[in-house]
Design goal:
Oligomer: single chain
Number of domains: 2
Number of strands: 14
Bound molecules: NADP nicotinamide-adenine-dinucleotide phosphate
CATH superfamily of the largest domain: NAD(P)-binding Rossmann-like Domain
């Protein structure tokens, strides 16, 4: 199988609505780079037959097959998303320390002929928090899935959090995250009021509030935030979720998921191309696209 010159791929399932192709292709066009980025669905590991790159194959073999084809020249690199961020690890030659710590890779690149797995979600998450004086504070994370794990690592390594509370409806997965990462405390939603009172950063790492169910909030009704915490929703559609709206009304600083989405893409872009992504112009392109989709 051959690829057009200098291709990048997103591998996941589903990928049909991913904004990554728009983000990367906008950046390539803005910088005049002769690269192309496209999204390709690969079924769950061991899952059903699916069509990928015009062929039909099974998930595990397809994932390995595409990873094997990364040569750093024609297929320069890939992003990996749900549900393959963990499953891709055995197919790589090396992991960066961050990918090893999170236990998942979202970016693959070639270094010295070796396929290296990295995780840019940690850097992407931290990017909008730079300069907000959040070091050594209490962090509350809602949800305990893949994104929550990256946020936990960011809270510990980037923010040196004094306390990391993982609030989840799925206590087994929260316990597993805390045990695997050797950090954090597990809490039920019933304990939220007490945790919110002293948290300086509250992060929604659940899909609650995501389009089209935009009137939902992961917080219980009338939840009271403490003294103006920063409230960060990883959801990027809508731009202001119900959680962020409630937080803004209570006087909190709010951050939406689009900043992280673009920052984690920019980190992959820098690794692959050696160039800075023009993030402001890319953000405008993504916002225009999302607005167009709504109308
Ligand atoms: P995930 O691995 O599927 O984890 C989702 C978490 O949310 C799980 O803990 C899940 O609990 C919980 N959850 C799901 N529905 C819930 C509900 N109705 N009430 C309470 N908890 C619920 O997904 P993920 O990859 O971590 O992604 C989480 C969110 O972050 C998604 O909205 C995703 O789009 C967003 N995200 C954004 C970025 C960005 O760059 N902005 C990056 C990554 C992720 P169960 O285990 O019980 O299902």
């Amino acid at each position: 199988m051959s690829y057009p010159t200098s291709t990048f791929l997103l591998l996941g399932n589903p990928v049909e609505h991913s904004l990554s192709p728009l983000i990367h292709n906008s950046a390539f066009a803005l910088l005049g780079l002769p690269f192309h980025y496209s999204a390709h669905r690969i079924s769950d590991i061991g899952g059903l037959d699916v069509e990928v790159l015009g062929e039909v194959d099974r998930g595990t073999e397809r994932l390995r097959h595409v990873i094997d084809r990364i040569d750093g020249v024609s297929l320069k690199g890939v992003n990996v998303t749900i549900p393959h961020k963990k499953a891709v690890l055995p197919f790589l030659d090396e992991l960066t320390p961050i990918a090893r710590q999170v236990g998942a890779a979202n970016t693959v690149f070639v270094r010295n002929g070796l396929k290296v797995g990295h995780n840019t979600d940690v850097e992407g998450f931290l990017s909008p928090l730079l300069g907000l004086n959040l070091e050594h504070k209490e962090v509350v994370i809602l949800g305990s899935g893949g994104a929550a794990r990256a946020v936990m690592v960011a809270a510990e390594s980037g923010l040196k959090a004094s306390r990391i509370s993982v609030v989840s409806r799925n206590l087994d997965s929260a316990r597993a995250a805390c045990a695997d990462l050797h950090m954090g405390e597990v809490h039920e939603y019933a304990e939220l009021p007490e945790l919110l009172a002293t948290a300086s950063l509250i992060v929604n790492a659940t899909p609650v509030g995501m389009w089209p169910a935009t009137d939902h909030s992961p917080l219980p009704p009338f939840a009271k935030l403490g003294t103006h915490p920063i409230v960060y929703d990883l959801i990027y559609n809508p731009e202001e979720t119900e959680l962020l709206r409630e937080a803004r009304i209570q006087g909190s600083t709010t951050i939406g998921g689009l900043k992280m989405l673009i920052a984690q893409a920019a980190a992959s872009f820098k690794i692959w191309t050696g160039q800075e992504m023009p993030v402001d112009a890319v953000e405008q392109a993504v916002k225009a696209h999302l607005k167009l989709k709504k109308n």
